[in-house]
Amino acid sequence: MSIVIPRVPWPKRFPDVVIHGNLQQRNKHPNLAIAKAGNAGAALALVRDLMNETALRQLDNLLQGRKPFVVPVTAIEAAGFNAIPDAMAQDIGERLELTPLSGAIVQSNQVAHTRADGWHRLVTPATFTGAVVAGADYLLVDDHVGFGGTLANLRGHIEVNGGRVIGMTALTETGGGREIAIRHETHLMLQSKYGNELAKFWRSTFGHDIDCLTNLEAGYLYRVESLDAIRTRMAQAAERARSRGVSAIDI
User: Fold this and answer.
1) Which of 98, 192, 202, 235 is the residue whose CA sits 20 to 30 A from 186?
2) Residue 6 lies in a domain
3) 151: domain CATH number?
């Protein structure tokens, strides 16, 4: 798959993703499987059990009186349509008097990221389609943030089409996922280890620079012994993804 992923660099002090619940609690919730398979009522019940007032106050403080559109990650997963982000967007809209835009912007590919490793996530980026209101503010919502690539790509779709993402929120996180924007020190570490070669490879492969990476993506790459090893592992992951019927970036 040859495709440009429309990410944009992170502004200084982009806020961390606001997290509402505990991953262990979510995984034990009796409604999880059917909510991820598209049951809207089950998703809303799960969301109301795990959303918390402290996180909602954080969101309210983050918005500072602005009234962004609330956009959930709308995706088809292995079990079906994941209804949890949509339920979150509806609940947040009601509680904070915001307008949810469910179904206005949707994920246009299937990526099979659930329980996948980092290499699979890197070579099977989520892509989005849908109209963006130029000049409008947006708050992005997902059920879980790990590497953060899906939220970063949704932000990219909105911002290259004239919108402005002012915050993100998720029900749960994998450790460190809330720190979504690449940190200055992480960026310096990548440059120190790989020079300009990683940036050149990333631009030619994805169409954006390493300053558009999430912090966990960047840290994952930093821990690899060489750029050749990064290329090899990404190529292997892409081949495995295609063998499972999932489209992957050409490496």
Assistant:
1) 235
2) no
3) 3.40.50.2020
Q: Give the count of domains, the chain.
A: 1
pLDDT digits (tens, 9 = 90+) for 146-191: 999 999 999 999 999 999 999 999 999 998 999 999 999 999 999 9
Q: Where are the alpha helices (DSSP H) in the chain?
A: 23-28, 32-36, 40-50, 53-63, 84-96, 118-123, 149-160, 184-194, 197-206, 215-222, 227-243
Strand partners, 100: 70
pLDDT at 194: 96
The answer to whether 164 and 137 have CB atoms below 8 angstroms apart is yes
* Enclosing domain of residue 23: 18-180
CA angle 159, 69, 126 (to 5 degrees): 50
Task: Name the stretches of the chain with pLDDT < 50.
Answer: none
Based on its alpha-carbon atoms, the radius of gyration of the chain, rounded to whole angstroms, reads 18
Is 190 within the bounds of a domain?
no
Q: What is the pLDDT of residue 1?
A: 54
Cα 48 versus chain centre, distance? 22
Contact 80, 38 (CB under 8 A): yes
- Closest by Cα among 242, 243, 241, 236 to 251: 236
Q: With H, G, I as helix, E, B as strand and everything else as coil, classify residue 226.
A: coil
- Domain assignment present for residue 1? The answer is no
